[in-house]
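Lab channel / #folding
Pinned by the channel admin:
"Please post every new chain as: sequence first, then the structure tokens as a reply. Keep commentary short and put observations after the output so the thread stays searchable."

First post following the new format, from NK:
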Amino acid sequence: MNEYRGTEGARPYAGTGWYYAEYRERVSTEFVAQLAEHLGWSRNDRVLDLGAGPGQLSIIAAPFVAEVVAVEPEPDMLAEGERRARELGINNVTFVGAGSDDLPALRSSLGRFRTALMGQSFHWMVDKDRVLQELSAMVDDSNGSVAFVKPWKVSAANALASAENTVHEILERYLLDVPAGIHPSGRHDPFEEILARSPFPRVELIEREYTVTARPTVESLVGSEYTISYVLARLGNRRELFERDVRAALGDLNELGEIRVTWRDDALIGRR
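Reply from TO:
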């Protein structure tokens, strides 16, 4: 959120919108349906997606509610989210250029929500207790909730893990002499503890595990690395050389064929 811009105005995800939307892992539609039922969403409810990126979670949640408001500070992410929602014919996602620091100013214009969602954004927010206090003023009093939603890769074939490691090792060599970029520093309490002392103290976890088949490509492996904060900025004009080295190291990935990957989607929920 605004904190991650730091005093130098850093933009960790500048230029990553398309890659993030295309290659970043995301929770399944089935899991969002499970979450919607668990939290009792209806087509009359509104949901806030804070730190929405290019809106993957917002777009998946949209069919289950009246409106999703996707709040995101990176212009490139917002533009990509708006483009993808438009292409999919989804007209109940509203994209707002702002961050968690802006919540008090946004309160009157955005209104109230049944649930505040966060994908992989909460760890960027420096004063997490304050963010939850400010969300409390925007979330329904009786049945409101906050949910941190995230996919986890449980297991995959060794061949995929080996290819991923190769790409990452080559990238690390290219970034060795480039500063890592501004990032919130220090340890924070477990999210469960932060929720327990917040206005949303009834904490629970729901999960869904499933297996899919994937056909990895050089583009998908490289694109996944480009979704990581600061990577594109740190690579700069060396991207072509990096991708050339990756292709030389991996060769033809078609021989890998389809690979089974097991994922676990989970939502850490705090209720009133």
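NK: The domain at 2-155+182-210+263-271 is CATH 3.40.50.150 (Rossmann fold).
TO: also worth noting, The first helix runs from residue 2 to 5.
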